[in-house]
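Troubleshooting entry. The earlier prediction with S-adenosylmethionine gave an output that would not parse, so I re-checked the input for stray whitespace and re-submitted. Clean input:
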Amino acid sequence: MRQIQSLTNPTIKALRALQLRKYRRQSKLFLAEGMRVVLAAVDLGWAPRHLVFLAGKENDAAMQKLIAHTEAAGGACFAVNRAVLAKISRKDNPQTVVASFAESWVSLPEIVQQGGVWVGLDRVRDPGNLGTIMRSVDAVGGSGVVLIGDCVDGFAVEAVRASMGACFHVQLAEASEAAFLDAMRGRQGQGWRGAIIGTALDADAVDYRRARWATPLMLLMGNEASGLSPALADATTQLIRIPMLGRSDSLNLAVATGIALYEHLRHNPD
Ligand code: SAM
């Protein structure tokens, strides 16, 4: 374990750079903050590559567990002051621990083989929506999220934060729209009995309570501004809408995803 108090230390600068997608892509590392989240990750078998914590906390039982786990897996531990933690997390009031982990992605063939409940997000831009959706996928016992086309990074700091640890349990994939459509077509060709359900505001879409909610499920959700692309909408087994009774014309993306996922769970409780 090393002590670092300098804001210009190269390791600290490299960890702070993980706030940016460019450096996450280069290093294939991402940041997670907070004792509860980092402990949950470790309990799920993830090993921190770097563990940075507030100096003086090294004798706390939970911190000792994290330090032992990190060092056993070949990771590096750093005791730092609050200013260094604030610099890495870009927050005035940082958590007492920040860790870096290696990104983990699944491929489209693995998704097709696994089955289960997946959410496909079409060009989703807001990391808070993504993290909230990962949390909901986890809550219904779903498998993961596919980022289709030009989406926010799956391991953006705000997405990880909003997922409240679900990013360590919910699988992530990314694909171009064309590759995703190819994988879905291949899947349907093999006597497949699942559902690809798209969500839309169209008046002629089916009320979500009357949809054929089968498993395996791919639930397709549209971009925050423009909705689901026509090509993705065409690839669905059914297009559904959630009734809007007031004056708003649409629901927040993550809210609509949660409602649809729980409707699937209601029809498929096992
Ligand atoms: N202007 C966009 C449109 O025309 O689709 C609104 C997009 S909405 C904010 C983002 C996504 O949330 C939609 O593409 C859809 O996936 C989902 N969504 C929001 N409200 C919905 C509703 N009432 N029924 C079904 N899906 C909905």
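This one parsed fine. The radius of gyration is 20 Å.
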